[in-house]
Amino acid sequence: xxxxxxxxxxxxxxxxxxxxxxxxxxxxxxxxxxxxxxxxxxxxxxxxxxxxxxxxxxxxxxxxxxxxxxxxxxxxxxxxxxxxxxxxxxxxxxxxxxxxxxxxxxxxxxxxxxxxxxxxxxxxxxxxxxxxxxxxxxxxxxxxxxxxxxxxxxxxxxxxxxxxxxxxxxxxxxxxxxxxxxxxxxxxxxxxxxxxxxxxxxxxxxxxxxxxxxxxxxxxxxxxxxxxxxxxxxxxxxxxxxxxxxxxxxxxxxxxxxx
Length: 259
Fold this sequence. Notes:
By secondary structure, this protein is an alpha/beta fold. The protein has a domain at about 5-95 and about 160-250: Rossmann fold (3-Layer(aba) Sandwich), CATH 3.40.50. It is about 30% helix and about 25% strand. It contains 10 helices and 9 strands. It has a 6-stranded mixed β-sheet with strand order 5-6-7-3-8-9, sandwiched between helices. The protein has a 3-stranded antiparallel β-sheet with strand order 2-1-4, covered by helices on one side. α4 (about 120-130) packs across α5 (about 145-160) and α5 (about 145-160) packs parallel to α6 (about 175-190). Residues about 1-5 and about 250-259 have low confidence and may be disordered.
């Protein structure tokens, strides 16, 4: 576990960000900061707005108010430095493309309108498949993969892009043990090389083991900062409707009657 990336500057920051769908406001007046060089988890109960926050930061859902900066600049100015891995349920898996084709798409952003992927782009795509242990499935249609293999394919696409900041929407949800191990290994390698990763995470009990920065979300930011000081029993109780289990904190949690 590294200390924090605060000394390296901010990879992403939002101020007074409000996001919603049609007339329903999901998040209001969110202030959000991600230091460079950390793995950050966005956690909270179902319906808290975790994925909406990520989509609002990236402009996939248009914010109703507020501003977002990446490396101190607007998204349009640095889009090639940012990778995004959506939830596997948000992808059309019937799309007629092989795994290698999907990974190669990660290189398109740096090519411009009139260039086609060449030897360099194909080599980097193959290297990304090697890092995610998917070379044996390179010519398989993307829809034929298991849930874990699909997540690894989209991680490989992001690796081929060679971004500096990665957003991952529940990358470990519903994956097999082999895929989970492969994904976590890649994430830790990316952090070790100075990259920044922000992931929506569904399992708060593993935040301390996986991440060094955390944002607790429930219709807004309840608390955000280094895991050691922010992921406290008090903050988790403020975020979730249920009482945390003792296993999360190594203490005996009080019963709901005494809380």
